[in-house]
């Protein structure tokens, strides 16, 4: 226990039969358990408290009266109550300060009254930004660091002075920019410095680096921000500069006429494909070979629901696998061996993509120049100009006319979508091929433009000298019925190890070169033509950067 302060050593004990071993009251002049009520005793000097909290002791020779005994008992009970602190009577009682910031204790009539706890606010956890933007901000106090607060505040002032000088032309646009950058930079330096010496060196190096930056004139600018942010911004700017798809950089990747014939592109010089005579828009009533199950059937656009299930096929491809010691060709869709019954059901479909003459009988091909000449406002379109480089991707479906265009997407070098349009079908749709096209039932009902109208819309951005970038563009050009000779095919820019006629899948090239996953195989959501078109442009930019670095 704590030692007694002896405040009541001169006060007689109010308990006539006190047996406490360490009583705080005086037991002198007590003859025995029985005492005369008329015996003289030293008077209890009541304690008074003045207005400023100074306790004074009043001397008195008056005899002890019952009321004073009662007060003494109250003092006794107060002394033994929890959390009571008493000053010596010979010194003034001063306010007692603690972690909870309690108020001063006062003595009133011999009884100690407890003050109510005061609520103390925690140190600020956010930096203080002065209203005067020419002053450095104040650091928050909530985090412990290996560096003293005073040194950190001094380092902050050094950084603020450099940022304030650097942002001289941009501060009118953002007055607190220098304060915010200084706080972020100081926090970055403090968190990476293990001691005060390392902190001071880092502050000095940071201040020198900031002073050497080019002065920004606009917001945003690569010179704005911390050293890390500014460095990343300049790296991105350098990357964008070296990745710019100028005609001089990419013209060497355009396919020559001989290469287009080699890779089975439609012949852009064959004007017979543009003839609109003897057209047969649909193949209904003719016999075809199913492109899925390889069975012969007659094309018919009627009773589709009743006929559903006439074709049993595998949508996956076969690949050799070693099974029970034998080499077998296994379908990727269901794991069955080649030659087994199909795992899916549908309608018979056909394709004429290998015969440009038959495709021209469905819908004639057109060159870009012919499309522009057929447009009613040719002059207005020409004066607007065309994009130098575009990325294009098309999605196809199966109809009674074979493989038909369902959607076309064109984007520019910066990834901005110039055109994304669904195609209204003029023949019966047999299968939407949603697993690959991404077209869901009912979406084509909202289409407005037919194939010739969509082709004209494409030529609002594609001119005779525009370079079209894509992956396997021969199929897209056939579906669009467009003849063009400025083509870059990423399947040829990044060739297969085995050479012609093998081609690598777009998703594999993108994964290898860009580290990005597209055309997710785990979900049958179909391809996104916008994603595929952008991916081909990004691959070409990667190739241009690689050429620049080598």
Automatic annotation (TrEMBL):
<dbReference type="GO" id="GO:0005634">
    <property type="term" value="C:nucleus"/>
</dbReference>
<comment type="similarity">
    <text>Belongs to the REXO1/REXO3 family.</text>
</comment>
<keyword id="KW-0539">Nucleus</keyword>
<feature type="region of interest" description="Disordered">
    <location>
        <begin position="122"/>
        <end position="141"/>
    </location>
</feature>
<dbReference type="InterPro" id="IPR012337">
    <property type="entry name" value="RNaseH-like_sf"/>
</dbReference>
<dbReference type="GO" id="GO:0003676">
    <property type="term" value="F:nucleic acid binding"/>
</dbReference>
<dbReference type="GO" id="GO:0010629">
    <property type="term" value="P:negative regulation of gene expression"/>
</dbReference>
<keyword id="KW-0378">Hydrolase</keyword>
<keyword id="KW-0269">Exonuclease</keyword>
<protein>
    <recommendedName>
        <fullName>Exonuclease domain-containing protein</fullName>
    </recommendedName>
</protein>
<dbReference type="InterPro" id="IPR013520">
    <property type="entry name" value="Ribonucl_H"/>
</dbReference>
<feature type="domain" description="Exonuclease">
    <location>
        <begin position="388"/>
        <end position="549"/>
    </location>
</feature>
<dbReference type="InterPro" id="IPR047021">
    <property type="entry name" value="REXO1/3/4-like"/>
</dbReference>
<dbReference type="InterPro" id="IPR036397">
    <property type="entry name" value="RNaseH_sf"/>
</dbReference>
<dbReference type="GO" id="GO:0004527">
    <property type="term" value="F:exonuclease activity"/>
</dbReference>
<feature type="region of interest" description="Disordered">
    <location>
        <begin position="27"/>
        <end position="63"/>
    </location>
</feature>
<feature type="compositionally biased region" description="Low complexity">
    <location>
        <begin position="33"/>
        <end position="46"/>
    </location>
</feature>
<keyword id="KW-0540">Nuclease</keyword>
<dbReference type="InterPro" id="IPR034922">
    <property type="entry name" value="REX1-like_exo"/>
</dbReference>
């Amino acid at each position: 226990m704590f030692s007694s302060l002896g405040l009541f050593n001169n006060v007689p004990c109010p308990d006539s039969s006190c047996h406490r071993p360490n009583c705080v009251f005086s037991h002198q002049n007590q003859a025995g358990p029985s005492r005369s009520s008329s015996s003289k005793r030293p008077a209890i000097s009541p304690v008074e408290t003045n207005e400023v909290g100074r306790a004074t002791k009043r001397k008195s020779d008056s005899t002890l009266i019952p009321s004073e005994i009662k007060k003494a008992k109250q003092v006794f009970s107060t002394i033994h109550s929890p959390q009571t602190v008493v000053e010596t009577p010979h010194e003034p009682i001063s306010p007692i300060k603690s972690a909870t910031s309690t108020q001063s204790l006062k003595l009133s009539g011999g009884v100690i009254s407890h003050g109510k706890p005061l609520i103390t606010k925690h140190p600020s956890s956010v930096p203080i930004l002065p209203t005067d933007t020419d002053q450095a901000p104040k650091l928050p106090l909530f985090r412990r660091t290996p560096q003293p607060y005073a040194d950190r505040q001094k380092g902050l002032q050094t950084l603020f002075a450099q940022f304030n000088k650097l942002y001289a032309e941009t501060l009118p646009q953002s007055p607190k920019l220098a304060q915010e950058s200084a706080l972020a930079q100081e926090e970055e330096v403090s968190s990476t410095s293990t001691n005060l010496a390392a902190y001071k060196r880092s502050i000095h190096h940071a201040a020198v680096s900031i002073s050497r930056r080019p002065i920004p004139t606009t917001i945003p600018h690569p010179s704005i921000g911390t050293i890390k942010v500014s460095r990343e911004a300049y790296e991105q700017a350098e990357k964008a500069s070296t990745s710019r798809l100028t005609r001089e950089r990419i013209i060497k990747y355009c396919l020559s006429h001989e290469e287009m014939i080699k890779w089975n592109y439609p012949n852009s010089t064959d004007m017979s494909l543009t003839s609109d005579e003897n057209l047969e828009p649909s193949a209904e009533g003719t016999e075809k070979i199913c492109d899925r199950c390889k069975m012969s059937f007659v094309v018919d656009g009627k009773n589709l629901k009743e006929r559903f299930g006439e074709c049993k096929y595998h949508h996956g491809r076969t690949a050799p696998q070693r099974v029970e010691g034998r080499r077998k060709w296994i379908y990727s869709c269901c794991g069955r061996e080649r030659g087994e019954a199909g795992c899916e059901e549908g309608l018979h479909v056909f394709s004429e993509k290998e015969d440009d003459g038959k495709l021209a009988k469905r819908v004639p091909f057109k060159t870009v120049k012919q499309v522009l000449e057929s447009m009613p406002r040719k002059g207005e379109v020409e004066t607007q100009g065309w994009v130098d480089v575009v990325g294009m991707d098309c999605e196809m479906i199966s109809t009674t006319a074979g493989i038909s265009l369902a959607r076309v997407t064109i984007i520019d070098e910066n990834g901005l979508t110039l055109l994304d349009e669904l195609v209204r079908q003029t023949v019966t749709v047999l299968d939407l091929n949603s697993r690959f096209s991404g077209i869901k039932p009912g979406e084509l009902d909202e289409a407005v433009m037919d194939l010739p109208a969509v082709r004209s819309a494409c030529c609002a951005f594609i001119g005779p000298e525009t370079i079209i970038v894509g992956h396997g563009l021969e199929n897209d050009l056939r579906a669009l019925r467009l003849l063009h000779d400025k083509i870059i095919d990423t399947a040829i820019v990044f060739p297969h190890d085995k050479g012609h006629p093998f081609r690598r899948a777009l998703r594999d090239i993108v994964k290898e070169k860009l580290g990005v996953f597209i055309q997710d195989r785990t979900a049958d959501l179909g391809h996104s033509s916008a994603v595929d078109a952008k991916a081909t442009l990004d691959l070409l930019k990667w190739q241009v950067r690689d050429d620049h670095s080598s």
